[in-house]
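Private note to self, pasted from the team thread so I don't lose it. Backbone tokens:
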């Protein structure tokens, strides 16, 4: 039987839903004796709480739901999409202004990839964008050999990788002037999907650059720079995923 009644969630999830911290960071705060609920210290990250009604404090400061924020970041190659890295590599958080409230990445771009990354403190929006079919994502891809017609046909039909069900069909537009370069449009986002698709044909991806997520484009945003979405962009993004569960 679930320990959570209607309207309640775990304390670590409540802190995430309020836009205070990621669930991993929230767990660290709770276990580190930084969090109180209704005047009582709580050390259990799974403690049931109604974030709309409970008085939650972190280090003595009452927390309230943060104003929704969505950022567009131009992630460079050589940066990891995580809060911290055990190898000491730069993370996307090293690129953000220090005064920003907590935001979490929507999906991932791996270390060798670049381009558009969205970050937000709206966990529901993030889940809808990242869910299969939530938002199409467009990539400029370069591989070490020309794309064959057979591979393009397989990608468009829905390739079967070594794990999981067949992939959703992928739109592929090959550059007629350079068949080692193509634009891929994905409607789902499995781990390292494009690299694995190309690897199934023995090809290596030499560059992978994301230029669009749903209605949001990278545009002229400089590498390493970030910006909040405009009101129109935010509305368009929310409308694009409004029907997602």
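Design output:
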């Amino acid at each position: 039987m679930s320990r959570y009644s209607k309207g309640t969630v775990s304390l670590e999830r409540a802190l995430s839903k309020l836009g205070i911290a990621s669930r991993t960071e929230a767990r660290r705060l709770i276990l580190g004796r930084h969090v109180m609920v209704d005047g009582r210290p709580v050390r259990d990250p799974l403690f049931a709480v109604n974030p709309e009604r409970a008085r939650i404090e972190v280090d003595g400061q009452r927390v309230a739901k943060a104003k929704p924020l969505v950022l567009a970041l131009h992630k460079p190659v050589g940066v990891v999409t995580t809060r911290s890295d055990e190898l000491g590599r730069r993370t996307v958080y090293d690129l953000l202004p220090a005064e920003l409230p907590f935001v979490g990445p929507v999906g991932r771009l791996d270390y060798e990839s670049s381009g558009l990354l969205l970050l937000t403190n709206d966990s529901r929006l993030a889940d809808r964008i990242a869910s299969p079919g939530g938002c199409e994502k467009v990539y400029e891809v370069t591989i070490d050999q020309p794309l064959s017609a057979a591979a393009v046909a397989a990608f468009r039909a829905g390739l079967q990788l070594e794990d999981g069900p067949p992939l959703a069909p992928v739109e592929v537009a090959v550059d007629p002037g350079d068949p080692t370069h193509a634009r891929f449009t994905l409607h789902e986002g499995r781990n390292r999907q494009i690299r694995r698709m190309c690897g199934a044909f023995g090809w290596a991806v030499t560059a992978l650059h994301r230029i669009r997520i749903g209605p949001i484009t990278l545009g002229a945003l400089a590498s390493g720079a970030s910006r909040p979405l405009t009101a129109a962009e935010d509305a368009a993004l929310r409308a694009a995923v409004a029907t997602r569960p």
